[in-house]
Amino acid sequence: MTYTSSTVRVPDVAAVPRHIAIIMDGNGRWATQRRLPRVAGHTRGVDAVRAAVEACARAGVEYLTLFAFSSENWRRPNEEVSFLMRLFVTALEREVGKLHANGIRLRVVGDLSQFNDRIQDLIRRAETKTARNTRLTLTIAANYGGRWDIMQAAKKLAEQSAQQGHAAEVNEETFSQHLAMAYAPEPDLFIRTGGETRISNFLLWQLAYTEFYFTETFWPDFDAAALSDAIASYARRERRFGRTSAQLEPQSQDADSLPC
Ligand code: FPP
Asked: Which residues bind substrate (predicted)?
């Protein structure tokens, strides 16, 4: 599957979302409520990541994208940033074998040049090892920002224009081929845990027609049952992509009125 734009062509939809994108929020508050240091919430957050991956694979979700570290998260206290980096390294070292054994492909998107060599190397090796897996594609967005993504795609088109000596054709198709997640369909369902109701510079381009689901549940408490509730809410939505409700009804009337 490669990216196709919902504003160019209406995608097929099913009761189970093909692609779920999640902002995993509330780790700090989960820990503070328990009088634990904030970083304890991130540690528990990794357990919730594991649970979400397993539940998505079981439900038949094809793509799961998790916002692990935004381009703005560098603004956090140094100790918390360092802790998150160490957690990322440990998770890569410990979990990639299990992901691979379960047929899961791992991708990491974002401006990876800001990470140290060790992390970049672990990412490259994990992506290579799991590249041919097809059960579920797990994407970790790390040092990712939706605006960064749009800018880097625009830059690539500009570079292409300069190389070929004339302006590259710019349309949704040519542009979106340069987005970091050009290998995935647009998310069908966006989930944000932790009670906030904003996108926080996540997949700005790709969320154009995505269904949104916000829950008060803190990320460490977001388990298989919580995911199932989110999917059930999604299944009740009417995805019109700009059309009317009547147009979504079975084709009977139109078919009946066609000349034989
Ligand atoms: C938001 O909660 C969470 C993060 C910025 C980090 C998310 C990281 C993990 C779940 C663990 C690492 C993940 C992987 C894939 C290895 P917050 O700290 O903003 O919580 P708060 O809003 O309660 O303060």
From this structure: 26-30, 38, 42, 70-72, 74, 76, 192, 198-200
